Amino acid sequence: MSKLKWVKSSFSEASGNNCVEIAQNKNLIVIRDSKNPKLPWAAIDRAAWSRFANAVAEGRLS
User: Fold this and answer.
1) For residue 20, how far is the Cα from the chain centroid?
2) 3-58 pLDDT, tens per residue?
3) Is the pTM of this model over 0.85?
4) Which CB contacts under 8 angstroms, 24+ apart, belong to 31-40?
5) pLDDT tens digits for range 43-56
6) Which residue among 7, 8, 22, 52 has its CA within the 20 to 30 Å range from the CA of 14?
7) Which value, to the nearest 10 degrees, does the dihedral of the CA atoms of residues 37, 55, 52, 5 take?
């Protein structure tokens, strides 16, 4: 995978806890823990990410 540009979630706490970063390429959304960036990360396709984000926005995962 080419070099990824990681972006920290705007919902991450300023104190450094619960920090999630995402990156994307042509086909995938990649998610990692920003506190431990060397740990394995997860990659999902854009359609799955869209379904997940919509479920969160609609409160179906709370």
Assistant:
1) 6
2) 889 998 776 666 666 688 999 988 999 999 888 888 999 999 999 999 999 998 99
3) no
4) 32/6, 34/6, 34/8, 37/6
5) 999 999 999 999 98
6) 52
7) -50
Q: Which two tokens stand for residue 11?
A: 């919902």
For residue 22, the 8-state DSSP code is: E
Query: What is the longest distance spanned by two Cα atoms in the chain?
Result: 34
Q: Is 15 exposed, middle or buried (0-12, 13-18, 19+ CB in 10 A)?
A: exposed
CA 26 to chain centre: 15
